[in-house]
Amino acid sequence: MPAGELRQLEDKIEAITEIAKGFGLDYFPMRYEVCPADIIYTFGAYGMPTRFSHWSFGKQFHKMKVQYDLGLSKIYELVINSNPCYAFLLNNNSLIQNQLIVAHVLAHSDFFKNNYRFRMTRQDMVESMGATAERIAAYEHEHGKQEVETFLDAVLAIQEHVDPGMTIRRREGEHEEKVRNSASTQYADLWEQDRPANPQEKKKKQKFPLEPEKDVMWFIEENSLELEEWQRDIMTMMREEMLYFWPQMETKIMNEGWASYWHARIMREMDLTSAEAIEFSQLNANVIMPSKTSINPYYLGLKIFEDIEERYDNPNEEMKERGVVPGRGRDKIFEVRELETDQSFIRNYLTQDFVEREDLYVFARKGSNYEVVDKDWTNIRDELVASRVNGGFPHITVTNGDYLKAGELLLTHNYEGTELDVTYLEKTLPYLYQLWGRPVHLETVIQAKPTVFTFDGRRVQRKTT
């Protein structure tokens, strides 16, 4: 980027920042870097400027770079949830493109800082991932690159199966234990000694785990007899990274909708020439263009936020009876930005009028064709909510870590109408076996029949129960 254009961009960033502050956006301190395409696509493939090396990231980079070279797709920006917040701009963007992106990433940073699901995420993750990369490189030097990469393959196959709510639950459990202990006296053990033994009492073997455990990564890391200490260390670090990314998976529609809402309003406040206004309109239309075959999160999130603002600015009689004060639409969307995830956002704010106005529908494949199968607004809402459950990943729990009393691992898929991808499942079970060290079983439903998949170290077997 020429020096003169860079100075222009710096001036525009300052103006955009002032406008964003005037609208009430509250974001982390911003750091902008203008980068060539190779750097942007490297960061996009790895998800971070500093992350450990793995062949799958290289595969993703190659795919993204080929699409860029062929003009099929283009990443205009990349923003990192951290404090300070890092935003990377493509060096061959036009000045208007970079202005739009700066406005867009400021709103992302506001969302990162204020949405409640991000409050447990580490804000020093750029540095933390750099430290993780160094430790993994040290393990490669000590144990061999092939052995470490083979282990990483297994961990990456199950990395989405974490539980971000585990920390809160465990803290509550520790608090309850402290309360129970404080209620007993210092002589409680003497009373226990005086109590006569009851020969009729039989010690029951506790379930393992006591309740179904959603955090498969944590359970294996803590309980596998197969793992060496360096492997547990890697699992701990990779689980931390996934917990960092998890809120972004839970709020994809909201986050992109919020950024799209604000980049449009900020850019309208800029002093644009006629040519710049036309270029901005074309760029904005491309970003929020609805799709007939899938959900564009930029479009859906934007339209729901705009609908909320309109309805709360001009409440109907029913809303007024609930205490909604006219003209509070802007306050309401800031409240929604803070308190909701994609699931609750859609469930609470997708209305019948909105569904009918946007002509939303459910379609399915019938024979060789795709057909519209449902236009009922409640079913459409529920279908969208279901697609966002668990960040869009299957909900799988550990239900028995000593299955068949042989130390085998039993997992259960909490089936809610969507079947697992059997090909993916059969390729993942050997990785679970590698991590657990003993046969692994997974219960699910295939073609309306309860089915158990088992990998015993040699082959995958399927049994319909």
Automatic annotation (TrEMBL):
Specify where the region named Disordered lies, as residue ranges. 170-208
* Superkingdom of origin: Bacteria
Domain named SpoVR protein-like N-terminal: residues: 6-391
**What Pfam families does the record tag this protein with?**
SpoVR (PF04293), SpoVR_C (PF24755)
Q: Where is the composition biased (Basic and acidic residues)?
A: 170-180
> Source species, please?
Salicibibacter cibi
Outline the extent of the SpoVR-like C-terminal domain.
394-445
* Record's protein name: SpoVR family protein
Against PANTHER family, the record matches this protein to: STAGE V SPORULATION PROTEIN R
